[in-house]
Each structure stands twice: as structure tokens, then as C-alpha cells.
Amino acid sequence: MGVVSLNEIALEIDGNLREIQRALRKPLSAAIARGDLTAPQRAIMAILVRSDGLSLKELSKQAGLAHSTVSGIVDRLEKRGILARKADESDGRFSRIVVTDVVRDFVRDKLPELAIQPLLGALERASPAQRKKIIGGLRTLRAALGER
Questions:
Q1: Which of 26, 82, 91, 106 is the most exposed place for a label (fewest CB within 10 A)?
Q2: Exposure pattern of 5-22 as b/e (b: 16+ CB <10 Å)?
Q3: Burial class (CB in 10 A: 0-12, 13-18, 19+), 30
Q4: What is the rounded distance in angstroms from the CA atom of residue 127 to the CA atom of residue 116?
Q5: Which string of DSSP letters, residue by residue, matches 5-58?
Q6: CA angle at 49 for the pair 81 and 47, rounded to the nearest 5°
Q7: Which residues, at least 6 apart from 97, have a Cβ–Cβ distance to it below 8 Å?
Q8: Hey, what domains does the chain have and what are their CATH numbers?
Q9: Those residues with Cβ within 8 angstroms of residue 53's Cβ, 6 or more apart along the chain or in another chain
Q10: pLDDT tens digits in sequence order for the chain, 148 residues long
Q11: What is the pLDDT of residues 79-106, one digit of tens each?
């Protein structure tokens, strides 16, 4: 076996990190797929989950989509019980679009659990010595990335 270049090591680390990320995201991806949302619907949901509600105009601007497109997406998601329109507290003539309590509870309670499950499973299967090596290697890499 010849000398391995730093470039080859970097490529191997990059490939491993990508595979680790894919494995960690698998339960989240499956949960999202079960929601049967299109890419634009997922984008709208991501914006709304991070907000306390937005007007259709604000949502269209943040999504970078036409007002009519966002209006149609909101209508479809509202029919499914995923989104709701609520009267704006400061001006009742306008409505704010919000995620429903079911969605907010899922994002708050279930998503973090789904995100950590693959990692917990891997650590349960690893020996104490392997766990120590994993955390040591990650700390070393993180520190090296911070050094310039």
C-alpha cells in the first residue's frame, strides 16, 4: 500500500460525512415523505414552522414565489388541516397563515426524536471503546477545522 495523499484522505472523510448525514436524515426523510408534500409545499412549511404566522404577501416574498402560487399551496395545505388562516391581531382585515397545533407539536416533539434515533442506535451497538474513539475522532476533526 502506497502513501495516501491529504487530498485522498480529505475525499474519504468527505464521503464518510456525507454517508453519515444521509443515514442520520433517513428517519426525517421518511417522515416528510409520509406527509406527501411537494417541494414547494415543503418550502412553505419550513418557512411557516420557523415563524409565528405570516401574511400571504410576506410568505410569498420569503418563499420567492408568486402570490398566486403561494395562495394555491396554502389553500391545499389548509384543506388538509396542515395550515390555518387566523385573523391578524393588529388588523382584523388581514389574516396570518400559521401551522396547525398538530404540525407544531410534531415539529417540537417528534422531529428531534426522529433526528437522534439513528445516532442512539449506532451508539447502543458500539462498544464503550468504540464510543470513546468516535467522540475523540469527532472532537479532533472539529478542533482541526477550527484551526487556521
A1: 91
A2: eeeeeeeeeeeeeeeeee
A3: exposed
A4: 18
A5: PHHHHHHHHHHHHHHHHHHHHHHHHHHHHHTT--HHHHHHHHHHHTSS-B-HHH
A6: 110
A7: 48, 53, 54, 55, 56, 59, 74, 83, 84, 85
A8: 1-34+101-148 (no CATH), 38-99 (1.10.10.10)
A9: 86, 96, 97, 98
A10: 578 899 999 999 999 999 998 888 887 777 766 777 788 888 888 899 888 889 999 999 999 999 999 999 999 999 988 899 998 777 777 889 999 988 888 877 887 788 788 999 999 999 999 999 999 999 999 999 996 5
A11: 988 899 998 777 777 889 999 988 888 8
Residue 120, C-alpha cell as written in the block: 442512539
AA identity, residue 33: A
User: At 24, which amino acid appears?
Assistant: L
